[in-house]
Amino acid sequence: MRTIVPSGGGRIVAGQMNELRHLQAGSELATALLLTDVQPRVRRDGSELLRLKLADRTATVDAIVLDRVDEVRDACQAGAVVFVCGTYATDERFGARVVITSIRPAAEHEYERHELVDGPARPVRVLDADLRELESTIQNRHLRTLLAQLLGPETQTWAWFREAPAAKRYHQAYRHGLLEHSLTVAQAVSAISATFGGIDRDVAVTGALLHDIGKLDAYEIVGDAIEMTDKGRLYGEIPLGYYRVRHATETIDGFPEELAEALAHIILSHHGSLEHGSPVLPCTREATLVHMADNFGARMGSFDRLQKSLPAGQEWSAFDKGLGAGAFFPLPSAPLPAQRRAA
After folding, report:
1. Side-chain half-sphere of 96: how many Cα atoms within 13 Å?
2. What is the pTM of this model?
């Protein structure tokens, strides 16, 4: 049974209210949660502690193991579901976190996996259908052939693309995140391309769908944890994406070189600046549009992530590196009393 005891008494048992987003200072936990990150640390006295990130579908919280680390180390593996007992506390120096008193592997009967694992707001089948609908609007036959080769429903690449995360931490860092992010970026590009003149919509939409395809090689999902692959660490997702798309265009008979170069430039420049990992800056209308839409989509995904980690009753998140600021989520206004509404 999942149990959270909020401060001030009362008990929230398994059900709608038994979620991490309802934690308050002083809440006691006895619940199964997904362990998404483990960071061993050594204190000044030489003893070890563990900094953890725990999650359910609604939120992610920081946690810490201060005592008996040797006894729980084997249970603390990224991607594992663990049964945690502890207290949610606010520290002036370290912020809000769960101070863990005990942690062990969770038994299968103690949790439902769909309650713990983050994912897209829309069902995956809807994302699939929306991508196919958008893909059908591409008029250029060479680009349609390329998309069929890389994202065709029966291809191995599509099977990976459909499951892959969009990031390790900052936005859509969950299964199906790459599909969700690439689709929303491409939908935005499609909508905006009709507003400004001179944009080759087919090139821009295709580039948007494929701009992050290097993440297939850069990330892997281990259990429910997202890890960088050796290729991701050695080369980075942008060169990996460039290579995958460039190789595909070279295997398609008659694929125009200028079209291949236009797509390659979108992939290489979509981070928008050298300091953010792009080896070149966007130098075409299509590349500039994809970069802007990608940046917008990533930032909106960061807002979703921050809102899920925000303690109940709090409007401001902490400073976020992805946004370069804290995020503000105004609380809903309280409804007016019945007599005031009537007046």
Report:
1. 18
2. 0.71
